[in-house]
């Protein structure tokens, strides 16, 4: 298996980062610096955006919050225990389904398969997932926080 970080917006996907070590705040900030910032330039240009992430310890570390403030990047306030709201989880599901019949023999082949599959994700798919956010939020509210179809 491999650990991978990726970014998406309604304009499409950004570059992938395959992590070589366990994710902690320092590693995450390195990913943000070398992958998220270029992805933001690619996907948004000079337009403003709000970064969305969950509350993983590396994401919510004080040093990571400082990194975002130092770079002038607003972060969406994220409620605890809300996986139903994050559209990138659905995107990873799409990637896994597209890879269903792939049989990589090692980590390098797995990375190549993930890269090739990620490259097939269209801006339209991303836009549909982002566009579903109001429905996702309404479904979670209606389910009173219980799991939803998303």
Automatic annotation (TrEMBL):
It holds the Pfam family DDE_3. Residues 2-111 form the Tc1-like transposase DDE domain. InterPro entries: RNaseH_sf (IPR036397), Tc1-like_DDE_dom (IPR038717). It comes from the Eukaryota. Transmembrane segments: none annotated. This is Tc1-like transposase DDE domain-containing protein. The lineage of its organism: Eukaryota, Metazoa, Chordata, Craniata, Vertebrata.
């Amino acid at each position: 298996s491999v650990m991978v970080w990726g970014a998406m917006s309604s304009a499409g996907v950004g570059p992938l980062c395959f992590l070589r070590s366990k994710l902690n705040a320092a590693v995450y900030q390195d990913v943000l610096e070398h992958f998220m910032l270029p992805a933001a330039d690619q996907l948004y240009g000079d337009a403003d955006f709000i970064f969305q992430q969950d509350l993983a310890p590396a994401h919510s570390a004080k040093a990571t919050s400082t990194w975002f403030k130092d770079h002038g990047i607003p972060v969406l306030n994220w409620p605890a225990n809300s996986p139903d709201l994050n559209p990138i989880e659905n995107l990873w599901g799409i990637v896994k389904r597209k890879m269903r019949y792939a049989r990589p023999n090692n980590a390098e082949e797995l990375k190549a398969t993930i890269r090739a599959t990620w490259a097939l994700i269209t801006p339209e798919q991303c836009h549909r997932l982002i566009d579903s956010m109001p429905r996702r939020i309404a479904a979670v509210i209606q389910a009173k926080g219980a799991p939803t179809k998303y």
